[in-house]
Amino acid sequence: MKTNKSFTKRIRVTKNGKLVARKVGQNHFNAKENASTKGRKRRTVTIQLSNKVKARFLPGSGA
Question: What CA–CA distances, in Å, run from 6 to 29, 31, 32?
Fold first, then answer.
């Protein structure tokens, strides 16, 4: 089965096999946000996926 490329471009697999992605809503309309919201949006998020979803979207990635 092929890897879903659009999905893999949005996430990163860490050394220990965790999946890390950007927070949503960072592209535009951020000037009106306060400083704490901007800081929260800059952090990455750990994604929890079931084994079924991992097998579908990330075969052979080690995740």
Answer: 24, 28, 29
The count of other CB atoms within 10 Å of the CB of residue 32 is: 6
pLDDT average, residue stretch 49-56: 84
Residue with tokens 């750990």: 46
Hey, where are the domains in the chain?
5-57
Domain 5-57 fold: Factor Xa Inhibitor (4.10.410)
Structure tokens at 54: 């991992």
- CA 54, CA 18: separation in Å to the nearest integer? 11
Q: How far is 12 from 8, CA to CA, in rounded Å?
A: 7
Predicted TM-score (pTM) of the model is 0.61
- Helices of type H across 1-63: 5-8, 35-42, 51-57
